Amino acid sequence: MIVLRVRVYSSRTRPQIPMPRPIVATVSIPAMRHNLALARERAPGRFVWAVVKANGYGHGLANAARGFAAADGMALVEFDGAAQLRRAGWSGPVLMLEGAFDPDDVAQAVRERLSLVVHEVRQVEWLEARAADAPIDVFLKFNSGMNRLGFGHDAFREAFGRLVRLACVGRLTLMTHFANADLVGGADQALRRFEAAAAGLPAPRSLANSAATLQVSQAHGDAIRPGVMLYGATPFGEGDARSLGLRPTMRLESRLIAVQELVPGDAVGYGSGFRAARPMRIGVVACGYADGYPRHAPNGTPVAVDGVRTATVGRVAMDMLMVDLGPVPDARPGSTVELWGETVPIDAVARASGTIGYELMCALAQRVPMRVDDGTCA
Ligand SMILES: *Cc1c(COP(=O)(O)O)cnc(C)c1O
To answer: Is 270 part of the annotated catalytic residue set?
Structure first.
């Protein structure tokens, strides 16, 4: 006989997120608000698009929508994400950063009042075919040197001429995306190219990603598009987000599930990728690459145990990684481990692993339970 158990929860006693393992990611809504306010401060008076693509850089789209509720608009690339924002009650502007992928997307844009990037001539044609619709705001994209999306100089001006005539096009904005805004002077040539192509065209401008928001004030234009800085990671190749005044928005934590005592010559993990030169205590952490921790993190990648900074040893496995307990002699199974967050900047883990904070956030695995710190006491 099958017995179905039905548990009834009152709205006051919502079930805890099931925690099959001790790992948990905590997303901080107050930190998101703080970082958004900092972006605004850097580009006063500008329209701020909070970039929430890739599931809010791995933070959960609904969480991003809450954290950035004070933004002027939300920008992303996924049309299902845009629909989710509308269902969640976001009624402000939504900008689709890669525009329509097919004509059905244009229909959704009309229905859900989404603004569309236009970077390709097919997208101009799809709009021309819908001339009778309610107007859509369009962001015409210039290729300023990245050679990824956008029109070159002449095609850009020609596309502007076609779009500006259409009844189904509302406000037209000129945009570009920088390849090198993180380098000092890295946006100069792109900015000159953009200004030449946009010369005399009567439309607002949007150019700045996080890096340009922070260090290229002449590129703030009318609307900025910060992404990674809002999530408390740096867009730059060095330093970390804290020194920019940003707060981490994601903490990845787990616990030690075992401790091993090593004698000199003992090896750790697959491939014996670490060998003890002296007697050592090491801790085994319930976090691996299947949780989104980078497998390429080498020996020495920063980590914190019971709030004390230490380093990984041995190869990261699917479900576990190992850490040196030398600086934390009191650590034992059950001790807390911060993989990244307040004590260990995500930028430091990324740099040690040959990647960027963006990738680590986005790669956080589905199996990691997510908690939301909304700044109120439970
Ligand atoms: C992702 C993206 C951004 C945000 O970039 P960050 O480096 O995360 O600030 C801005 N504009 C466009 C077009 C993007 O695709």
So the answer is: yes
Same domain flag for 210 and 87? yes
Q: How many angstroms separate the alpha carbon of residue 51 from the centre of ligand 1?
A: 7
Alpha helices, DSSP H, located in 251-356:
346-352
The CATH code of the domain that includes 192 is 3.20.20.10
Which ligand 1 atom is nearest residue 225's CA?
Answer: 10
pLDDT given at position 228: 98
pLDDT (tens digit per residue) in 234-267: 999 998 899 999 999 999 999 999 999 999 999 9
Domain annotation covers residue 298: yes
Q: Read out DSSP for 152-211?
A: -HHHHHHHHHHHHT-TTEEEEEEEE--SSTTSTTTTHHHHHHHHHHHTT--S-EE---HH
Helix (H, G, I), strand (E, B) or coil at 334: coil
Domain residues for the domain of 304 are 250-355
Task: Give pLDDT tens digits for 271-323.
Answer: 999 999 999 999 999 999 999 999 999 999 999 999 999 999 999 999 999 99
Residue 176 lies in a domain: yes
Q: Which residue reads 């049309």 in tokens?
A: 79
pTM of structure: 0.93
pLDDT of residue 265: 98
**What local confidence, expressed as pLDDT, does residue 222 receive?**
98
Whole-number pLDDT of residue 17: 57
Catalytic hit among 9, 57, 141, 270: 270
Is 374 part of any domain? Answer: no
| Residue 223 shares a structural domain with residue 315 | no
pLDDT of 18 reads: 61
- Give catalytic status of residue 53 as yes or no: yes
User: For residue 57, which atom of ligand 1 is closest to its CA?
Assistant: 8
Say how far apart CA 327 and CA 140 lie, in whole Å: 55
Domain assignment present for 115? yes
End of a domain among 209, 237, 265? Answer: 237
In the chain, which residues have pLDDT < 70?
Answer: 1-19, 377-378
* CATH number reported for the structural domain that contains residue 302 in this entry: 2.40.37.10
Q: By three-state DSSP, how is residue 255 classified?
A: strand
Give the active site residue among 53, 57, 231, 289.
Answer: 53
Q: Could you tell me the distance, in angstroms and rounded to a whole number, from the CA of residue 73 to the centre of ligand 1? A: 14
Residues 192, 83 within the same domain = yes
Tokens of 249: 């928005």
Mutational pocket test of ligand 1: of 55, 78, 97, the residue with most ligand atoms within 8 Å of the beta carbon: 97
7 CA to centre of ligand 1 in angstroms: 44
Instruction: Write the residue with the smallest CA distance to atom 15 of ligand 1.
Output: 97
